[in-house]
Amino acid sequence: MSKTKYLRKFLRLDPGKRRYLLIAMLLVCLIRLALSLLSFKSVLRLTKRLSTTTTVPSEMNQSSIEQILWAVKVACRYVPGAKCLTRSLVLQIFFAHYGRAIRLNIGVAKDENSVLKAHAWTEEDGRVVTKEERLQHFTRLLTFDGEEI
How many CA atoms lie within 13 A of 131 on its CB side? Predict the structure, then answer.
């Protein structure tokens, strides 16, 4: 797809989706860069700071949740190296912006070749936010609540 097609596609999005996508792209770039340059503890502190700077008192409905999930997924697709940890940290920031704390989980599992794989995902009230289905194979090692960071 040419650059002008990307731009036209972006401009055809409704204003809410466009806004979420711009914010998601900025946050994904920032968190990805932070993960490359800083210690994990420093990245968690940055995430906490970004999560508490502004909180919108409005409700987060299912439509806005779907738009946020979509925007973060698309932004991660275009930022090199933005994988599950980046996505999970960005989702924590987005949800905290609406006053909703979600839990960051980091776990490991062996694949079919007995290679150890790590994965990060987010949960709210015990439900996986990103609707992933392959998590039953992962053993949770670490959990970070939005307030704990």
Answer: 5
